[in-house]
Amino acid sequence: MFESAEEFLRSGAAASTSCLIADVCMPGMSGVEMHERLLAQGHAPATIFISAYPTPSLHAKAASNGALVLLQKPYHAAAMAHWLSVALGNP
Fold first, then answer.
1. Tens digits of per-residue pLDDT, 6-25?
2. Least packed by Cβ within 10 Å: which of 28, 47, 67, 87?
3. What tens digit of pLDDT does each residue of 46-88 get?
4. How many domains does the chain divide into?
């Protein structure tokens, strides 16, 4: 829905966002940097990261910042559906 992390942050939509799905590698600010900024602002929605190149250090960074999961591209639709359910509190 947003062209960049910066656009999302400027939009003011974070306060009403229940679940954020962000690619780790984006033009400009990375998804991880955006999530860190949201944490610093006191509002980080449940976050699902996706990446074509998920390294062990990236997994650790995402987990330590409170992200739900880091899914590797291409991911299965069932995996995304599961994590969306977790993020939104549905069984």
1. 999 999 999 899 999 999 99
2. 28
3. 999 999 999 999 999 999 999 999 999 999 999 999 999 999 9
4. 1
SS3 51: strand
> Residue 64 has which token pair?
């330590």
- Cα–Cα distance for residue pair 25/87, rounded to 1 Å: 21
CATH number at residue 33: 3.40.50.2300
- DSSP track, 26-72: -SSS-HHHHHHHHHHHT---EEEEEESS--HHHHHHHHHTT-SEEEE
